[in-house]
Amino acid sequence: MPVGAAAAALAGDGLAALSALRGEELLRRYDRSLLGVFGTPQRVLVRGSGATVWDADGKAYLDLLGGIAVNALGHAHPFLTSVVSSQLATLGHVSNFFASPTQIALAERLLTLANAPEGSHAFFANSGTEANEAAFKLARRNRGTAEAPRTRIIALEHSFHGRTAGALSMTWKPAYREPFEPLPGGVEWIPAGDVEALRAAVDETVQAVIVEPIQGEAGVLPLPEGYLQAVRDVTREAGALMIVDEVQTGIGRTGAWFASAGVIPDAMTLAKGLGGGVPIGAMLTFGPEVSALLSAGQHGTTFGGNPMATAAALATLHVIEHEGLLAHVRETGAWLAEELLTLDEVEGVHGRGLLVGIKVREGLAPLIVQAGLEAGFIVNATGPDTVRLAPPLIVTREQLSTFVQAFPALVASATATLAAQTTPKES
Ligand SMILES: *Cc1c(COP(=O)(O)O)cnc(C)c1O
């Protein structure tokens, strides 16, 4: 069937009627048909190209969030589109009863990029939470002995590892966890970056320590210099696994393939940017002993590592490498941080590469997000005082400078809205 005919058939299945509607009416339909866990979205997006997206009313936005650090190559990247289309037209899905060349190539490529030693392996899933769910089960398999059992998993305060039960049980925010308790137990949180607390917590009863090199959801909070190495040393000494959650920070986001580069963990989880927008997650296990902790039948997934998703990840890695995006991210990120810091409205900039937290006056961040949408910028607030940027890695200085130039006006608008909200109305 020609592409045009396929599109016409789909349109007949209800899409044509929807594409005639304006955003407001589409959002009413959304509320009626989609579960309310995300609230009502701000806009309905219909199309993208590079770092630009368009909404259902034809308004354009500079996408500085990139689907939350996912659209590494921007939208509708021609190489990614072509690789995924041709893979789907060849062999899209096979289940894990069968192997596929793209899956093997991706495993080998990621292990090489991560400097993984001989005997390391990859497990593919479909998302970040699933990658961490696998890591949670891996950690549980580090059981110790009958006389000296290991039962504890150490995570960091303000951590975010996902929303499925195992990953959620390692996530710090009580509001995410408490409605679903009892969750898998044995998880404890220690203050991020505190080496003394780390040493005090980790002994022969610990199965694993899990850390994000930069805590993305918490507000793009980096760990102090040397902390990851301290985690490596302390876990090695205690026989606990070191798990790095690079779901948000990995695959070039910080200007290196991995934000934890230089420290070899026992397991690493990846997802967001890995497939350039096609859902895929991964867990890498380092060395033969760790890799042997999960044996045949102990974990699995129907979709994980399918040819289409692994081809998408290979395409994403290929473009990052061949277009020199790691250097571009380092240079552009450093330049952006400097530009932002010249603004009076900015109280601080943290993060690395193109994972950027802009600190603003308490309460302003969510209102800056609103003002940004009005002005044609997509950004996000990780909390009341932090605006997060995680744009496509291909974003240009010219594009970013339009945002820097607009930022004071966004803050002014947010400040006015905040003042109107907090001034008691005269009766
Ligand atoms: C987003 C994120 C996750 C969860 O990934 P999903 O794909 O949303 O399940 C886990 N860990 C970190 C550090 C993340 O940023």
From TrEMBL:
Positions binding pyridoxal 5'-phosphate in this chain are: 128-129, 160, 245-248, 302
Q: Which cofactor does it need?
A: pyridoxal 5'-phosphate
| Cellular component per GO, a single term | cytoplasm
The answer on whether this UniProt entry bears the keyword Transferase reads: yes
Q: What class of enzyme is it?
A: transferase
**Record bears the keyword Cell division:** no
This protein's source sits in the domain of life called Bacteria
**InterPro entries on file:** AcOrn/SuccOrn_fam, Aminotrans_3, Aminotrans_3_PPA_site, Class-III_PLP-dep_AT, PyrdxlP-dep_Trfase, PyrdxlP-dep_Trfase_major, PyrdxlP-dep_Trfase_small
Q: Please classify the protein's predominant subcellular localization into one broad category.
A: cytoplasm
List the catalytic activities from the record: N(2)-acetyl-L-ornithine + 2-oxoglutarate = N-acetyl-L-glutamate 5-semialdehyde + L-glutamate
Q: MF terms per GO, please? A: identical protein binding; N2-acetyl-L-ornithine:2-oxoglutarate 5-aminotransferase activity; pyridoxal phosphate binding
What GO biological process terms does the UniProt entry carry, in alphabetical order? L-arginine biosynthetic process
EC?
A: 2.6.1.11
Pathway(s) annotated for this protein in UniProt:
Amino-acid biosynthesis; L-arginine biosynthesis; N(2)-acetyl-L-ornithine from L-glutamate: step 4/4
- Where do the annotations place N(2)-acetyl-L-ornithine binding? 163, 301
What are the entry keywords?
Amino-acid biosynthesis, Aminotransferase, Arginine biosynthesis, Cytoplasm, Pyridoxal phosphate, Transferase
Q: Which cell locations does it reside in?
A: Cytoplasm
Query: NCBIfam families in the record, alphabetically?
Result: argD, PRK03244.1
Remaining remarks: May also have succinyldiaminopimelate aminotransferase activity, thus carrying out the corresponding step in lysine biosynthesis.
Name the record gives this protein: Acetylornithine aminotransferase
Q: Which organism is it from?
A: Galactobacter valiniphilus
Q: What is the lineage of its organism?
A: Bacteria, Bacillati, Actinomycetota, Actinomycetes, Micrococcales
